[in-house]
Write a structure and sequence with these properties.
6-stranded antiparallel β-sheet; elongated
């Protein structure tokens, strides 16, 4: 006769595990459902994040500009040193010839007299240690060999300096590439965020920015603040002529600008050379710490790390190249954290 056994009941531990897992699954699905509507950031959240990325891009831009300026300076210095070395080598060759045709011929063939060989050795310092050999040479030859010794030392120093600057140039080029990638990365990230917006939201942001970007035909009440100087006013007027020009990182005009590119270009039109980057422009003149003391044409430095600069335009306005996606325009000085003015 078949036996009837009761089905084996799951253990209490197993029931507990299954129950807990089910509860967790329900909780997770509930959280996912609740989180779904808030996954997409709002237009205002996107704008705030994009503005922050643009600011970071501008910080990187000024560092990029600094590295680029250093690269250009090093290239000029290296070129000058290399020219000096070439001229020095020609001079050295002439000095060697000056000890006499016979000695020069012997020097080229390697059969030079032992006394001359001493002076023209790879280590010209031997000359000082073994000066007694000078008795075998004429006074004119001794003087020529002293000049040779000095010129060899000079050339060795020039070559060593060029070598160090070439290493510095390689490092600077690497830094330049990194800063360029950093700027591009920030801009790409900002664009990616903007692409999450609907067409209507994009249109609303564009309209708001268009209202902020006044073109050259718009009038801004700049009051009647006196200019800092005739040169400062000329620079300010040059910047005014570029209202509506697009912001492009690393650009120094005449058709596009970044913030310090605009100010350095404008002062150049007034016949005044100022540094290229905002941090250096912050130290290019007398600092004005009170906004009430600012005059038209003064530079205005913003943010704690001094990465943004513009012109004071009067009546609490600045004229500047704000950031990527904007144009040269007037804006309230209160829209950014004011640090101080600079009177060139």
């Amino acid at each position: 006769m078949a036996s009837h056994r009761r089905p084996k009941q799951p253990s209490r531990a197993r029931v507990t595990v299954l129950t807990t897992a089910a509860a967790a699954a329900v909780a997770l699905s509930s959280q996912a459902a609740n989180a779904a509507p808030s996954e997409k950031p709002t237009k205002d959240e996107v704008k705030a994040k994009v503005d922050a990325l643009y600011e970071q891009a501008e910080q990187a831009t000024e560092k990029f500009n600094g590295a680029k300026e250093k690269q250009e300076k090093l290239q000029k210095e290296i070129s000058t040193i290399q020219d000096d070395v070439a001229r020095g080598q020609d001079e050295l060759n002439g000095l060697r010839d000056s000890i006499g045709l016979a000695a020069a011929a012997q020097y080229r063939t390697g059969s030079i007299d032992s006394s001359l060989q001493l002076f023209l050795s790879s280590n010209p310092d031997d000359y000082l240690d073994k000066a007694s050999a000078a008795d075998q040479l004429s006074a004119q030859q001794v003087e020529a060999l002293k000049k040779i010794q000095d010129k060899q030392r000079e050339l060795a120093q020039d070559r060593a300096e060029a070598s160090e600057k070439l290493k510095d140039l390689a490092t600077t080029r690497t830094e330049l590439g990194k800063k360029k990638k950093e700027v591009q990365s920030k801009l790409a990230e900002a664009q990616k965020l903007l692409n999450t917006l609907s067409a209507k939201e994009k249109a609303a942001l564009a309209a708001a920015d268009a209202r902020a970007s006044r073109d050259a035909g718009d009038r801004v009440d700049l009051g009647n603040t006196a200019p800092a100087s005739g040169r400062a006013m000329a620079a300010f007027q040059a910047a005014q002529s570029k209202i509506g020009s697009p912001y492009v990182y690393g650009a120094t005009g005449p058709s596009s600008f970044d913030c310090s590119g605009l100010t350095s270009w404008a002062f150049a039109q007034a016949g005044v050379k100022i540094p290229r980057i905002s941090q250096d422009q912050a130290n290019a003149g007398t600092r004005i710490y009170s906004q009430s003391d600012l005059k038209v044409g003064d530079l205005v430095i913003f943010y704690g790390d001094q990465h943004h600069v513009g012109f004071y335009a009067g009546n609490g306005q600045v004229l500047h190249a704000p950031r990527t996606g904007t144009v040269v325009r007037y804006e309230s000085i209160g829209n950014m954290p004011f640090q101080f003015g600079v009177r060139i």
